[in-house]
Design a protein that fits this description.
The complex is a heterodimer of chains A (184) and B (162).
Chain A: E1 4-5, E2 10-14, H1 18-30, E3 35-39, H2 42-49, E4 56-60, H3 68-77, E5 88-92, H4 97-106, E6 110-113, H5 118-130, E7 135-138, E8 141-144, H6 156-166, H7 175-183
Parallel strand pairs in A: 2-3, 2-4, 4-5, 5-6
Antiparallel strand pairs in A: 7-8
Helix pairs in contact in A: 2-3
Chain B: E1 7-10, H1 15-19, E2 21-22, H2 30-42, H3 44-67, H4 72-92, H5 96-109, H6 117-135, H7 143-161
Helix pairs in contact in B: 3-4, 3-6, 4-5, 5-6, 6-7
Classes of the chains: A alpha/beta (184), B mainly alpha (162).
Chain lengths: 184, 162
């Protein structure tokens, strides 16, 4: 495990459930992060961003009135967005393939399935630090590039094809499959 | 090439690497991860208070669904949202059975626009089982008793939906 000092990073946590906000905040504090603020929905979070220079956003999917997808779209494409490039980790119980693709296609960097753990959250933060993405504007899409892996041993696409042919079990993807889909 | 087909690649400023350092005091190591996991474990007691509130909310939403069978979609969605929250929280605080039950309830409700008598019975069963898990403090996978609860629930659901 690579050890990073995250003390100087600013985190914005967006979740309509106050208990999950408290949980994520506690994990981040335990990892040494001092500057975390939170918001209960996408609209409030967008307002917070106007004066809080978030380095990473951790965002829930299901929220009212503005959910995680709408919020990500706003951050990426709104004219008054203070930082369209800010990395976003989508934190959600929705891990079905179509949902992951939907999140990827609005410009989410990383995806972390609930229930969450400190190790899981740190691994997503580390992925953002270690793999900075270029951004792509193509048609209506604006977001981090979805990189294709060149490794000869990379089997993600084949495995997914197999999963489509054989049926995806309960329809949900594992964290590893989610990562493959986001990075393909 | 039309604007629609144009692809622009932009390299954003790498602000993170200027703020993040490797190693040294304060860096995240296995101890920090353990500390964070133990903080989550300490929050499990509070979770039991929160989940009691969620159980009251989901029971109320289910009662509303039964009272509004002429417009079930809105109330099915309400039950779904609460179950979805419970799914996310359960395993995070060491109550993996709550995540399994929340997930199964969400999968059962997902896509439904009407609620039959059998559907309502199944939803009641899931809510009742979640109440048992919490009242008996069945953390983790619940051991043999947890397995018995899940197997029993699956058998009853299969029987009434057959």
């Amino acid at each position: 495990m690579r050890n990073y000092n995250l003390e100087r990073l600013n985190f914005l946590i967006v979740d309509d459930n106050k208990h999950m906000r408290a949980l994520v905040t506690s994990i981040l504090h335990a990892l040494g992060i001092k500057n975390c603020i939170d918001a209960g929905d996408g609209a409030d979070a967008f307002k917070e961003l106007q004066h809080f220079p978030a380095d990473i956003i951790i965002c829930d999917w299901n929220m009212d009135p503005l959910d995680g997808l709408d919020f990500t779209r706003m951050v990426r494409t709104a004219k008054d967005s203070p930082n369209p490039f800010v990395p976003i980790i989508m934190l959600t119980g929705h891990t079905e393939m179509n949902r992951v693709v939907e999140a990827r296609d609005v410009g989410v960097h990383e995806f972390l399935a609930k229930p969450i753990s400190a190790k899981g959250l740190y691994s997503r933060i580390r992925a953002i630090i270690e793999r900075p993405r270029v951004f792509v504007r193509a048609g209506s899409f604006f977001g981090p590039e979805r990189r294709r892996r060149d490794s000869p041993t990379y089997m993600g696409a084949e495995r997914r094809q197999q999963s489509v042919e054989t049926g995806p079990g309960d329809g949900e993807l594992s964290q590893a499959e989610v990562e493959e889909l986001l990075n393909d | 090439m039309s604007d629609d087909n144009k692809v622009t690649v932009i390299k954003p400023p790498d602000t993170l690497s200027a703020k993040v350092t490797k190693g040294g005091p304060g860096a995240v190591d296995l101890e920090a991860i353990k500390r964070a996991e133990s903080i989550i474990a300490d929050m499990a007691d509070s979770y039991l208070d929160w989940v009691e509130e969620d159980l009251i909310k989901i029971t109320k939403a289910q009662a509303e669904l039964k009272a509004h069978l002429d417009e079930p979609a809105k109330y099915l969605d309400k039950v779904f949202q609460i179950a979805h929250d419970m799914k996310g929280q359960g395993g995070s605080f060491g109550y993996d059975l709550m995540t399994i039950l929340g997930n199964d309830l969400c999968r059962f409700i997902e896509g439904k626009e009407t609620a039959s008598k059998v559907d309502l019975e199944v939803i009641d069963l899931y809510i009742g089982t979640m109440q048992i898990v919490i009242s008996k403090r069945m953390s983790g996978d619940g051991g043999a008793e947890g397995n018995k609860v899940l197997t029993g629930l699956a058998a009853v659901v299969e029987k009434i939906t057959a």
